[in-house]
Amino acid sequence: EQRFGRDGHNLTQALRWATSEIKVKDRKKRSFYLSAARSEVFNLVVSERIASQQAQQVLPGDILQLQGSHSWFQATENEDLNVLQTRLAQQDILLTAPLIGEQNVSATDLENRLVEKHQALLSLMAQERMKAARRPILMQAKDLQWTFVPEGLKIAFYLPAGSYATALVRELV
């Protein structure tokens, strides 16, 4: 919600920019709008994986990230998906979703179908030379601690860059 701006304004403006309805010269606004557009597609892919109960299941075509690095590889039809599933359960690897940009990597049928629905945003990313990237679908907080204090509940935890503490707190409560 933070990334999309008040009432989704940043995403609305990104869509208007993508369809040439507006021009965006301000560098800060361009950055906000591109980020909102990428986040929208990412969130749609993640939401669909959760809704289909596949957010913790390795599928052929999935792009997996090695824990603690930005290195990734793609699960193929020929790989032993059971071995990958065990590695996922052990958090040795993480499922990812796209941050769209130039040269997106084809992934699962589900992901490809959702990404292809956003041609205007894909064109905008290419126009702006945004580099495609991947981000883990699910993150687990590290060093989670909690205690009751007179003001209420105090929680402390660590999340990697790009994760939102507000999203974690929302899920907890």
Describe the structure.
- With 173 residues, the protein is an alpha+beta fold.
- The protein has helices at residues 9-18, 27-51, 81-89, 109-116, 119-127, 165-172; strands at 63-66, 72-74, 93-99, 133-136, 142-149, 152-158.
- The strands form two sheets. Strands 2-1-3-4 form a four-stranded antiparallel β-sheet. Strands 5-6 form a two-stranded antiparallel ribbon.
- α1 (9-18) packs across α2, α1 (9-18) crosses α5 (119-127) and α2 (27-51) packs antiparallel against α4 (109-116).
**Series of H and E elements:** HHEEHEHHEEEH
* Average pLDDT level: 92
The major pleated sheet works out as: 4 strands, antiparallel
Which spans have pLDDT < 50 for at least 5 consecutive residues?
none
What is the beta-strand fraction? 15-25%
Q: What Rg do the Cα atoms give?
A: 18 Å
Helix content: 25-40%
Shape descriptor: flat
Strand order, sheet with most strands: 2-1-3-4
What's the total number of strands?
6
Tally the helices: what do you get? 6
Structural class: alpha+beta
Cα(first) to Cα(last) distance is 17 Å
